Amino acid sequence: NIYKPNGLHNFSMYLDGRWYSLTANKNTYNDNDPIGVLDVTILTNQVLEPILGIDDLRRSKRIDFVGGIRGLGELKKRVDSCEMKVAFALYPVSMSQLINIADDGLIMPPKTTWFEPKLRSGLVVHDLS
Question: pTM of the prediction?
Answer without folding.
Answer: 0.84
